[in-house]
């Protein structure tokens, strides 16, 4: 893997972290009940994916 691929992976990871942050903020501020649970679960899944992308870009 060359440096450009690592750069793109890290940018995707940052983008996914921003997306997860916006999603969890929206879920807590605007929704209730089951929808809130679903959105929070999706946000956590996106955050875990971004963690692994960031880890791959470092190694």
UniProtKB/TrEMBL annotation:
Keyword Transmembrane: yes
Keywords: Membrane, Transmembrane, Transmembrane helix
InterPro entries for this protein: DUF2768 (IPR020076)
Annotated Pfam families: DUF2768
Membrane spanning residue stretches: 6-27, 34-58
Designated name of the protein: DUF2768 family protein
Species, as recorded: Chengkuizengella axinellae
